[in-house]
Amino acid sequence: MKREAIFDETGTYRYSLTRKWSEENDRKVTFILAYPNHANEYKEDPAVRKCVELAKKWGFGSLEIVHLFSYQTDHISFLRTLTKQEAVGVNNDYYLLSAIEHVDLIIAAWGDYGSLYNRQDEIKQYIKNKPLYCLGITKQLFPKHILSVAASAELQRFASKRPIKNEGTLTYIEDINDSLIHEEPVEEIKPVEEEEPLTMIEEIVDMFR
Known about the structure:
Low-confidence stretches: 162-202
Shape: globular
Distance between the termini: 29 Å
Number of helices: 6
Mean pLDDT: 81
Largest sheet: 7 strands, mixed
Radius of gyration: 17 Å
Structural class: alpha/beta
Order of helices and strands: EEEHEHHHEHEEH
């Protein structure tokens, strides 16, 4: 697997982390998480491992992880002691915008931390012209944190107020309704019927044309 990570010159801020496991499959998914822990180009952390697990399951060949806040820390409480600029990082939004520019799927998975410094609304403005997905929502209507969802979690469109069920369904995920316990009832995603079944990769391409 090819591993890369981009930090600021002090190593305090991690702006981007990428993993690529297939040279033949150029399909890429971007995850937007809350803040980085301590993964780098040599080691993983639980959030990165979960993202890789899901991306492989869905048939992608690579992923990129960016964040609402790029300051590396173990606890969100520390970010609250910083100014907004200190927590976000000077170049964070540049790398975030780059990560969503040419990608097949964008997933929001930052949890309730999106309320800090109103970062969720800022990020959604950046990507308002692109489909944004999540893996379920919290009681506060934020996208669930990547570590709080099952491997078979249901992909949903993440809208301005709450995810839109059954809109832009990713039909290549057939088992996502089996094990996720929702905090509120949602409609089951049903595959789109085709005269000839599309392959996993073809469905992704068709959805984003």
